[in-house]
């Protein structure tokens, strides 16, 4: 009489097989190599990284940056250009297999505004500004958040209480209100000052996460061993605890940068962000909002690049989170599982044969 296999035993066997496959993939690798291997295997992160690199290259090579000229013939500031298509419609045409007249970019592929300015060049300038603001906010907020969180979590006591109450004070004020005030004061000066000012107030969530990591890590055995060896507090923080919290810091900073570009877009749309003559994506949408029903292409391209940048940064952040988190497992394919089961069965038969011979 045959008996059906125990589901619990089958599940335990599959889990054991998965663990064996994962350990076999990372054997002999350092922690950094394991993280890179997991990140490069994350399909969403790789797609996001590729698209983001393409956007950065397109934005900075087309219209140039600073004294470096670009390959695009317009700057986006000319007001003496003739409007090619009626209403400044885009000049590019779709391929024939999509029902178009054949693929062609034309003189103004993204269209023109009411003054005849080339929209492609203006969007590329806006992408440059938004990317610059996003990176600066991420770096400034990361620096302040790591400093505050590490000091509060490591020393605790009165310093922890003071720093956390200060953090709570920043959290109680809505971010959009603080951003509007900062944008009104600093947005008219320069985009860099605007980004630095926003970074100074957007560090609170990162500080709390870093504090939690430091509170947990400071009680570990390797920290006690460093203290017994005579290591100073500075060395313990920078050489022992901070490297073990770097995963949380990188992932949180990446996601913070994604929300930062949306905040900059919202503030610029409301008129409290980057001010002319500097161009940003949110400012373009705000500038052309009255033409939404008659010339919607003026909104298509800035909105598309805002969504693309935010999504790609989020995908990269998800990939980094999965790469740094040891609890995240990559489920092996059925082919690998079958090979692992076959190898395990052969090893078991070989062991039984040796036992029978003995």
TrEMBL record:
<dbReference type="GO" id="GO:0055085">
    <property type="term" value="P:transmembrane transport"/>
</dbReference>
<feature type="transmembrane region" description="Helical">
    <location>
        <begin position="241"/>
        <end position="263"/>
    </location>
</feature>
<dbReference type="GO" id="GO:0005886">
    <property type="term" value="C:plasma membrane"/>
</dbReference>
<dbReference type="InterPro" id="IPR035906">
    <property type="entry name" value="MetI-like_sf"/>
</dbReference>
<feature type="transmembrane region" description="Helical">
    <location>
        <begin position="167"/>
        <end position="186"/>
    </location>
</feature>
<keyword id="KW-0472">Membrane</keyword>
<feature type="transmembrane region" description="Helical">
    <location>
        <begin position="131"/>
        <end position="155"/>
    </location>
</feature>
<keyword id="KW-0812">Transmembrane</keyword>
<comment type="similarity">
    <text>Belongs to the binding-protein-dependent transport system permease family.</text>
</comment>
<feature type="transmembrane region" description="Helical">
    <location>
        <begin position="45"/>
        <end position="65"/>
    </location>
</feature>
<feature type="transmembrane region" description="Helical">
    <location>
        <begin position="192"/>
        <end position="210"/>
    </location>
</feature>
<feature type="transmembrane region" description="Helical">
    <location>
        <begin position="297"/>
        <end position="320"/>
    </location>
</feature>
<dbReference type="InterPro" id="IPR050366">
    <property type="entry name" value="BP-dependent_transpt_permease"/>
</dbReference>
<dbReference type="Pfam" id="PF00528">
    <property type="entry name" value="BPD_transp_1"/>
</dbReference>
<feature type="domain" description="ABC transmembrane type-1">
    <location>
        <begin position="127"/>
        <end position="317"/>
    </location>
</feature>
<keyword id="KW-0813">Transport</keyword>
<protein>
    <submittedName>
        <fullName>ABC transporter permease</fullName>
    </submittedName>
</protein>
<keyword id="KW-1003">Cell membrane</keyword>
<keyword id="KW-1133">Transmembrane helix</keyword>
<dbReference type="InterPro" id="IPR025966">
    <property type="entry name" value="OppC_N"/>
</dbReference>
<dbReference type="Pfam" id="PF12911">
    <property type="entry name" value="OppC_N"/>
</dbReference>
<dbReference type="InterPro" id="IPR000515">
    <property type="entry name" value="MetI-like"/>
</dbReference>
């Amino acid at each position: 009489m045959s008996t059906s296999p125990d589901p619990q035993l089958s599940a335990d066997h599959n889990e054991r097989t998965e663990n064996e496959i994962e350990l076999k993939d990372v054997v002999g690798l350092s922690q950094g190599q394991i993280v890179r291997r997991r990140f490069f295997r994350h399909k969403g992160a790789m797609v996001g990284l590729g698209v983001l690199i393409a956007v950065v290259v397109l934005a900075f090579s087309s219209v140039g940056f600073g004294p470096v000229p670009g390959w695009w013939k317009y700057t986006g500031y000319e007001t003496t250009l003739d409007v090619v298509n009626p209403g400044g419609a885009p000049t590019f045409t779709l391929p024939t297999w999509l029902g178009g007249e054949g693929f062609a970019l034309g003189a103004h592929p993204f269209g023109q505004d009411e003054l005849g300015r080339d929209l492609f060049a203006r969007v590329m300038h806006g992408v440059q500004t938004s990317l610059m603001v996003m990176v600066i906010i991420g770096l400034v907020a990361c620096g302040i958040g790591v400093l505050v969180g590490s000091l509060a979590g490591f020393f605790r006591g009165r310093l922890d209480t003071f720093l956390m109450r200060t953090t709570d004070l920043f959290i109680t004020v809505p971010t959009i209100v603080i951003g509007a005030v900062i944008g009104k004061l600093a947005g008219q000066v320069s985009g860099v000052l605007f980004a630095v000012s926003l970074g100074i107030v957007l560090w609170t969530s990162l500080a709390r996460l870093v504090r939690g990591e430091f509170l947990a890590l400071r009680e570990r055995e390797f920290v006690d061993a460093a203290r017994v060896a005579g290591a100073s507090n500075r060395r313990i923080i920078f050489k022992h605890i901070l490297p073990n919290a770097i995963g949380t810091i990188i992932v949180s900073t990446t996601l913070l940068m994604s929300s930062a570009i949306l905040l900059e877009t919202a503030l610029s749309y409301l008129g409290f962000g980057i001010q002319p003559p500097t161009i940003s994506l949110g400012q373009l949408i705000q500038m052309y909002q009255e033409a939404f029903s008659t010339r919607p292409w003026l909104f298509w391209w800035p909105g598309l690049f805002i969504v693309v940048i935010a999504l790609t940064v989020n995908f990269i952040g998800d990939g980094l989170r999965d790469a740094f988190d040891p609890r995240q497992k990559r489920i092996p394919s059925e082919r690998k599982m079958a090979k692992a089961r076959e190898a395990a069965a052969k090893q078991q038969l070989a062991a039984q044969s040796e036992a029978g011979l003995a």
